[in-house]
Amino acid sequence: MSSNCIFFGWNRSLPGRERMSAEHFQAFGEYLAAQQRNGAIQSFEAVFLDPHGGDLNGFFLIKGESAKLDQLIASDEWVTHQIRAMVHLDRGGGVRGASGELIAQRMAAWLKEIPAK
């Protein structure tokens, strides 16, 4: 089953590495903008969540075609950004997902798995 987005979220900067996080946030945004201009992704959005006591405080939502997202996350640049994030973020990580038109497909697959009464 295909996916059409990547959710990359984090809790917070590791103590003492806040400046590194700010610099990498800027660099990662520039990287994603370049990927959008080049057609590798369709769009991306950065979101900072309001304080709520949880361990997810921000994320990037990156949208694109499944095959192009596969190529993106296999690239050396992507891997380097992920490694950089590991150095300065608490609980940073990405996961593939479905949004938009793929929701109906996922819902249909889910409904088929519900046992009949």
Characterize the structure shown.
With 117 residues, the protein is of the alpha+beta class. The chain has a single domain, classed as Alpha-Beta Plaits (2-Layer Sandwich). Helix content is 45%, strand content 23%. It has four helices and six strands. A four-stranded antiparallel beta sheet has the order 3-4-1-6. The chain has a two-stranded antiparallel ribbon with strand order 2-5. α1 packs antiparallel against α3. The longest helix has 20 residues. The radius of gyration is 16 Å and the shape is globular. The two termini are 27 Å apart.
Biggest sheet, strands in spatial order? 3-4-1-6
The description of the largest β-sheet is:
4 strands, antiparallel
Topology, number of strands: 6
Q: Show unreliable segments.
A: none
Mean pLDDT equals 96
Intertermini distance:
27 Å
- The helix-strand sequence is EEHEEHHEEH
Q: Could you say how many structural domains there are in total?
A: 1
Structural class: alpha+beta
What does the oligomeric state look like here?
single chain
Helix content: 40-55%
Continuous helix count: 4
* Secondary-structure arrangement, i.e. CATH architecture: 2-Layer Sandwich
CATH topology: Alpha-Beta Plaits
Strand content: 15-25%
Overall, the morphology is globular
* Global Rg: 16 Å
Brief sketch in words of this structure:
The protein has 4 helices and 6 strands; from the N terminus they run ββαββααββα. It has 117 residues and is an alpha+beta fold. 15% of the residues are buried.
